[in-house]
Automatic annotation (TrEMBL):
Record-listed E.C. numbers: 2.7.1.170
Organism per entry: Microbacterium azadirachtae
Keyword annotations: ATP-binding, Carbohydrate metabolism, Kinase, Nucleotide-binding, Transferase
Enzyme class: transferase
PANTHER family xrefs: ANHYDRO-N-ACETYLMURAMIC ACID KINASE (PTHR30605:SF0)
Protein name: Anhydro-N-acetylmuramic acid kinase
Amino acid sequence: MRVLGLQSGTSHDGIDAAVVEFRVEGIQAHGAVLRGTVLHTAETPYAPELRARLVAALPPAATTLAEVCELDTLIGQAFAEAAAAAADAVGGVDAVCSHGQTVFHWIEEGRARGTLQVGQPAWIAERTGAPVVSDVRIRDIAAGGQGAPLVSLLDDLLLRNALPAGGAAAALNLGGIANVTVVGSGSVLGYDIGPANALIDAVIQDRGLDERGYDADGRIAAAGLVDEDLLAALLDDPYYALPAPKSTGKEHFHLAYVQDHLAAQGRGIADADLVRTLTELTVRTVARDIAARGAALLAVSGGGAHNPVVMEGLRAALAGVEVVSADALGAPADAKEAILFALIGWCTLHGVPAVLPGATGADAPRILGTITPGSDPLRLPEPVVGIASLTLD
């Protein structure tokens, strides 16, 4: 089965696509021996005017139901075009799994109460003719989970192949939010650590420090100095002390959050120093958690993996940990989450739960998502009891 995974993360910069051909190479007691061949990956930036509308509608800004409806359609159409291009590149796909674009993740008293992703899947089904799995987070929340991080499903399967003898390994994704999966001798643990690029990008975009909207190659951070007083205040956020599993998003870590902290300081901070301090916030919070989990291997993916200030900071703070790119596990670092959603699509269509309760806090594993039929009658394959192992190539 060829499944196309589509996603746009908390950086809101565009659509990642990955076509994966899955083959069942055997059946064991715990499930299928699965091999996935990554046939195609692509990144499609949002049109500038669409991205501007999306960012303007995000919390803490006010918006309208009319704007949400229009964004649901426009982003769905953008996803549909990206899907059609990816499907054409490989001569067609059997199914699509679309995460869509998160616009709100409702956390109350440390518990997820709801989540909203826009990007209407009917546009994708109409454009490609393939069935579409979508709305994949809410079932986990309904089962008592955080709805995130779902990537622990893929991380667990990949890290098993690289697990140090008697030790633990971790997979870190540095998108807008930093999330981690830790695999060891016990149950899998996964959660959102805190901001990765969210606060850095918000400041750069607000102050026009780089037309690309992010700190390319860590250039701005490298020119600044850490403001220790501001950093101490940022590190005092109660979120970091919450027990895992936990999740967060730009509903909490956004531009106004930085502005409030700056106002509390009562003094000016140079642009480069502010970016450097926010970058150090990511390094300190991630390194603290990885060290506490006792991981001997850390595989990093996401946009933050391209920031040398972040990566050098992590290696310096985690001297006893081998820090590598997620590519070392077989998943291209820039496409890992799109590959994840291809895997979730395969799982849903084969009746396989894609929730790891230790990662999300759900009461039990659950099959995720809803299915929009394609141009043909919907025919599901024979169910599989689970996935015993996964090899990516």
